[in-house]
Design brief:
disordered N terminus; four-stranded mixed sheet; 16% strand; single chain
């Protein structure tokens, strides 16, 4: 009897291991199809870390040259992404009916689970057809129905002229481009370009109002540092140009501020954390101000050799006693900010929290020094 029960347990366990909830086998083609759809959708949306392998990147040659024709590039890109994702959803819905003929029940008389799966199937079909139809209407209408073309008509009746002005400005090398996943915020001398997976918006700098909504912390794939993501609402005074919320890494925030003509309002007084280099520069200054100061000689009043704007107010005087540090006999040639940038530039990039404890070589004579050897002029 014991042997028979043991054999029954083995048969029962093996049967359960090949099933999921409601008796559906794990190796069922339907579940394999569902897994393949999930993987394909993620691949179509999110680039793989370190490889940037995504559907948009593979199809990028079809869109043209972004640097030369940024408007046409994003018109084609958004159309392609909307159509391809709609096709992916529709293909999954049709293939699911093929691998499981009774997957859909429009009579809704087989229980709530079957009714829910039927509604999901219908949403995939309708959503896929709507996405593909919208993309085709953009293309077959000579792009006249594309949302970006409608926006450009707000700037000029012949939207191609407005597009040409945007593309000419985008070709300049001094633009600021902040990338965050599939989102891009580019600022040129006259225009602001915000792109996402399915949308792109262009704003004339003189027409916009910018305000910070909120911030959040995130860690990107393969990254160790925590990013502060800043959400900025961009609103245009022109009719036909809808507002957008652009999300950028706080490390680009200062560059954006310098390039933008309008001030980014921060009504809620949200704290924007600085980049690691800026945080270190503030820490470097605080530590240097604790050290003994030196009195410059009458002829030691030169400008900084780095920025040529500030006074050369820093001298290296060995006082730490560390074995690796050496004496420096240079006259004051650098300001504190430039010396901090020099110090940070040769520290390990992956460990900014340890920069203040590191050492660097004098920019002039290459003598090794640390933060304890930095003396500020006592003016």
């Amino acid at each position: 009897v014991t042997g028979d029960l043991y054999d029954m347990d083995i048969v029962s366990s093996s049967g359960l291991m090949g099933q999921t909830a409601e008796g559906i086998p794990i190796n069922d083609p339907f579940w394999r199809l569902t897994l393949a759809f999930i993987v394909a959708f993620i691949w179509a949306v999110v680039p793989l870390p370190d490889f940037s392998l995504s559907l948009a990147n593979i199809a990028a040659p079809l869109f043209g040259n972004e640097g030369q024709h940024v408007v046409w590039f994003h018109i084609r890109r958004t159309t392609f992404m909307l159509f391809s994702h709609g096709l992916l959803a529709l293909s999954y819905a049709l293939c699911s009916c093929y691998v499981r003929p009774h997957f859909v029940d429009f009579h809704f008389d087989e229980g709530p689970v079957k009714a829910l799966t039927t509604l999901i199937w219908a949403a995939l079909v309708l959503g896929g057809l709507a996405a593909m139809g919208t993309a085709l209407s953009w293309r077959l209408g000579d792009w006249g129905r594309h949302p970006l073309v409608r926006q450009l008509r707000s700037y000029h009746a012949q939207w191609q002229r407005a597009a040409g002005a945007v593309e000419l400005d985008y070709q300049r090398v001094d633009k600021v481009v902040a990338r965050l996943g599939t989102n891009i915020l580019a600022v040129t001398d006259s225009w602001i370009i915000s792109t996402s997976l399915y949308a792109v918006a262009i704003y004339f700098q003189n027409d916009v109002d910018l305000s910070i909504i909120d911030t959040m912390d995130a860690t990107g794939p393969g990254q160790q540092r925590v990013q502060q993501i800043v959400s900025i609402r961009i609103t245009s005074v022109r009719a036909g140009v809808p507002p957008v919320v652009a999300r950028v890494d706080a490390a680009f925030y200062r560059d954006l501020q310098l390039k933008l003509q309008a001030t980014i309002r921060n009504s809620a007084n949200i704290v924007i954390r600085q980049s690691p280099e800026e945080q270190f520069a503030a820490q470097f200054r605080i530590a240097a101000e604790r050290n003994p100061r030196f009195t410059p000689q009458p002829d030691q009043h030169d400008n900084c050799a780095g920025c040529m704007a500030s006074a050369a107010s820093v001298k290296l005087t060995r006082r730490c006693g560390r074995p690796g540090c050496t004496d420096c006999f240079c006259r004051p040639m650098w300001c504190l900010d430039c010396l901090a940038k020099w110090f940070a530039s040769i520290q390990p990039v992956h460990a900014p929290e340890a920069w203040i404890d590191g050492t660097a070589a004098c920019p002039t004579c290459r003598a090794t020094f640390c933060i304890h050897d930095v003396s500020i002029a006592a003016y």
